[in-house]
Fold this protein.
Amino acid sequence: MYEFNVTLDQPYDQALETVKAALMEQHLGVVSDVDVAAIFKNKMDKKIPPYHILGACNPKLADRVIGAEPNAGVLLPCNFIMREEDGRTVVSFMDPEAVLNLTATEEPKKVGKEAKEILLRVVETLKG
């Protein structure tokens, strides 16, 4: 499987703060944010509920991946989406183990497994 997710009984803006706090507890920060809803509105005049693609990163883990296989940086950061659905917020994390298993060296694969364990702890925190 390429992802795992959790649905929060929170509106998008509140859920974003909740997710950021859960990530920080696991030493992950949000390093990128693509506002898909805004892009769709600006480029296609299409309105959709809030939908963001975000990137979570722990620099020490990223350093291990890039140090072992520099081109594996294309697989970073750990992307996740947040989207609003019926007043609730779906948070879906890319499975870093599945993605980093695409690499040719062992260290990124080890990092992928560690990162997945960390993100699964984030999901458990979000489930409350």
Remarks:
- The longest strand covers residues 78-85.
- The chain has a mean pLDDT of 97.
- Residues 106-127 form the longest helix (22 residues).
- DSSP finds five helices and five strands in the chain.
